[in-house]
Structures are given as structure tokens and as C-alpha cells.
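Aim 2 progress. For Glyoxalase-like domain-containing protein, the working sequence is reproduced below.
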Amino acid sequence: MPATAQPLILDHAVIGVHDKLDTAADIYRKLGFALTPRGYHTLGSINHLAIFRDNYLELLGFPSEGEKKRADLWSYPSGLNGLALRTSDAAALQRELASAGKPVTDWKDFSRPVEVDGVQKPASFRTFQIGAEVVSNGRFFFCQHNTPELVWRAADQDHPNGALNISDVFIVSRTPQTIIELLDGFPSATPEATDAGITIPAGTAVLHILSEESANSRFGSAIPQSFDGNERKVALGLTVRSLEVAADALARGGFLSRPFEGGLLVDAEAANGVALWFKE
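Predicted C-alpha cells for this construct:
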């Protein structure tokens, strides 16, 4: 029985950078992403975003000086450590998932100021986490955008590397059933077993759950090679306007990409702990 009528949609992918946001932002600009100005959350974290058509990438850190208010986040390894799934009503979805027996936290509200035509406006959000006690090396959470017009702005979506959307998320898991059970109950999000692992559709993106053997066979040394716990998020697929445009942007930034499954792959070591697969 479905747990909710709300769809399962990838909203954004979080790359944790701890107190190295300046360094990470420089890397991602050189990778060809147009980043938004630094954001300052009311919860204490700071970020830059790469906004795409249907989702976005977030570089999330904390100030190098002062109190670290988000202690729960800073315990995760740097790299791809958060997946935000979209909800139109976080409070209602939290109640539905709790009633279905899924482990969810209380929801919380926060915001960050955004400057629009010289005027400061609050971009506000409501989020809650699922599986906090069973997911390793990061988190799955649901995000309600109260002011999506302050996030998806056309001026922020023109990337020198031609990036259009996050199309794939790759998760190496020793207990894939844990993730399947957490995300079970959403319409049109039925897990499918493939030769490479398990896939779960999430809007315009696909979540790929791979065994360590399958991930290493497919990506080799391009992804993080060891981790504690049950799973780790290791790679993102990004659709681009043109591989030629992406290749030119990467070369200008000084990155060595290599051919990979019809696209281009940048190793995790060069991209702050997450492998990036550019594809048309």
C-alpha cells in the first residue's frame, strides 16, 4: 500500500565540504559550474548552489571561525553526503511516513537571505530527515521550498560546462534493502533490479544502488574506495548540452577527464569526494 500520494523526486544533491567552502567553490567554478553567491542559513551553515532545470547541486559547509551549529552534519565525511527529496508539504508527508512506520525526524524551518535587484528576500525551507539512525555517511531528507522562485532563477542556470540536470546518483551499499525500505511507498518509484544493481526513479533522476564489487568494476578508482558503515554516496551523473562544451570547460579548468560510458568522467579525488559523470 502506498505510504503517500506525493511523488519521489530528487530536489538536490549535497556535497559536504566542512570548513573548506572557499576551496570547494573554486574547484566547482573551474569544473564549469556557475555558482550562486554565498548563502548564510539561519541554522548556521553556509553554501553555494549550482542550479539546473529541475534540481540542483549544493556545496554545504560551515564558517572556518565561530560556533559550528550543525554538529550532525559535520560528522559526515566530505563529499556527496546528502540527498534532498522534494515535497510540496513536509508536515503532511512527515505524518504519512511516520504512520507507515518509517523512521523520520521532526520537521524544521529555516531560511537564508537572497538578494534580488538589490533587495534582500528570505528563501525559506521546511525539511525533515528519514532513516537518520540507519543511513551511514550522510543523510536522506525531504525539502519543501516555500519560495522556489528565489532558488530557480534563470540567471543562475547558464553553466559554462553546459550542465542541465542531475540525472543519476550512485550509492554503494552493503545493505541495499535498507534504502529500498526507506523509500518504499511512493508512487512511480518502484525499485528495479538490473545487472548493475538496483535503480529507483526519482523525478528526472535515477538513484542507483550498487554493491561494492559492482561499483568498483564500473567506476574503478574514480570513486571513494573505502568507508565505514552501510553505504556511501559516491558519484553523480549530469546531463549537459554538449560533451564538446563540457570537455572544453573541463580543459580550461585544468581537469583531466576520461571517456566513460559515452560521456566524460572526473575522478572524486579532483571533485571534492564525488565522481562526476558528464553525459548528453
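The longest strand covers residues 119-130. This observation will guide construct design in the next reporting period.
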